[in-house]
Amino acid sequence: MNLISVLPEILILAIGILILIVEPFWKPEDRHGLGWLTAGGLVLTALVSLLFGRPSAPELVWGGMLRFDWLGFFFKMLFLFGGAATVLFLMGVEQINRRGEVYVLLLASLLGMNLMVSSANLVMLYLAIETTSIPLYVLAGFLRTDDKSTEAGFKYLLFGVMASAVMLYGFSLLVGFSGTTDMYAMVEALRRSGLPLFSVIGVILLLLVGFGFKVAAVPFHFWAPDVYEGAPTPIAGFLSTASKAAAFVVLLRVFLVLFPLEAVQWSLVLAILAALTMTLGNLLALAQKNIKRLLAYSSIAHAGYVLIGVAAISTESGEFFAFSISSVAFYLLVYLVTNLLAFGVVITYYRVVGSDDIPAYNGLSWRHPWLALALLAALLSLAGMPPFGGFIAKVVIFAAAIKVGLIWLAVVGVLNSIVGLYYYLIVLKHVYLYRNEALEGQPLPIPGPYAIALVVLALGVLLLGTVFGPWFSLAEGAAAAFF
Amino acid sequence: MIPLSWYLILSAALFSIGLFGVLARKNAIAILLGVELMMNAVNINLVSFWRYLDPTRMDGQVFAVIVFAVAAAEVAVGLALVISVYRRRKTVIADEIDLMKW
Questions:
Q1: Residue B54 three-state SS
Q2: 3-class DSSP state for residue A362?
């Protein structure tokens, strides 16, 4: 049972070791095969885990270090999918696609994320968060000859270690207050300790610094635009989706399991953070000229939308509302697929054109209608338009907020979606309405791995928006892990 | 015996000095040093809680060992990134590494 519960992690580790072993035996010009090996391995890992590694009733495994439940499993499969797509996108980046280290670092970070979403012990949780972050610092700064990439790695590291140190201080106080590191035993210990409310709120705020940094919520969002702009674009896509989703799951698990008694207080704090994050993210996105920075601010805004769902978990009487948890899980699923598609189009276009400026997208629909269509699907889904996944995701999040009485927050969210629609449409205006005759008719080659990833992601966005029932019931299954 | 609260005050002071260092210093190396101070404050917390509350449980000590192992890894990666920035820009002053803004 113990081994089955970490089946995805074991297989990810095996792929990493395999990459390190085969790399020296391949000639440098053949080494793009490493990418195929990694992506194929990740898909295989997902399939094997789906067949043999499914959880039944939630249970604590590995001496209480991990909790084997549907919440963790749902997100593990999501990360494997996102990781495979990221690897396919990495395969076209000339400076790094023949370097085994890139794939190994990505796998290490993926391993950390998988452990993050199933941790049931603070020691394990901290270790998993750092296992995720440290390889990502390196990956963000991986292009050593590129000034922007080194700067991105540098800034990500400095902000990241500071936020994680503040969060760790919160962990140490929690361990002291409760006398245990086991998250599921901690809530009872905290209740018995009779701690004054303000010290628990203090710890919650310390933890929020760390989680807020990882999900890029205002006021801990400063790093996001710079890092997304400078880092290799596939890594930026990975940071903005999988890394963010993992942090949200940790946020859910820690807050719901450790602080059920203070639910009213933290949901108020999160509601305020959500409103600030959405508004600031969307307003700053309006002014952007670079599409990667635009997507960075849009991803900050999306962290705000997800926070609405998290804030809506606690009802006014402090009960938990299961629908809100499933809406958060579903939003993260849709957001991961959609944002990876958006970044995928940006990567594909940058590879040929060499520019991330929005005016460089003039005339894309004449040059390559299919790529333009993929961008249209991604951006309209991000904006929350039917028939794409983003529409359903936004509907369920706002419905959750209204059901628990956070009407003002739902109104702020809807207004923000309108602002968001405006800047997404500006990009589409450049793609569809402006022409660039000099470039029309010129080929826009799309490498094989990119084509596969783009087609799968685009179908995913469409599927999540039309046949959403089965996916939403999976999210409901994940949410049931808390009850 | 020295009361527990003294250790906690020491640790809070160390944490605050570290945080101040991180926020106020411009030199990347000094920022990393500030983070180290914060991590050590955490270790003092963990070890003193372990000693005073229940020395038979090893949780606190194990956590402290893991924290300083992770801190070492973070600093190793941090210094590597600082060196890679220094090679390109000939500076480690955070304010001057400002290619990307807004």
A1: coil
A2: coil
Those of residues 17-36 in A touching chain B at CB distance below 8 A are none
| Closest chain B residue to the Cα of A159, Cα to Cα | B22
CA–CA dist A104, A109 (Å, integer): 9
CATH code of residue B20: 1.10.287.3510
Within 8 A of B78 by CB-CB distance, chain A residues are 137, 157-158, 161
Containing domain of residue B88, as a range? 4-96
Question: Among partner residues A138, A165, A179, which is closest to B35 by beta-carbon distance?
Answer: A165
Cross-chain residue pair A151–B54, CB shorter than 8 Å? no
Q: What is the ipTM of this complex?
A: 0.96
The domain total for chain B is 1
Task: Name A203's Cβ contacts closer than 8 Å, sequence gap at least 6.
Answer: A170, A173, A174, A177
- In this structure, is residue B77 part of a structural domain? yes
Does some domain include residue B101?
Answer: no
**CA-wise closest residue to A304 among A175, A228, A226, A212:** A212
Q: How far is B96 from chain A (nearest CA, A)?
A: 11
Predicted local distance difference test score (pLDDT) of residue B102: 55
DSSP helix/strand/coil, A265: helix
pLDDT, tens digit, 9 for 90 and up, residues A225-273: 999 999 999 999 999 999 999 999 999 999 999 998 888 899 999 999 9
Q: Round to whole Å and give the CA distance between A281 and A303.
A: 9
Contact A441, A346 (CB under 8 A): no
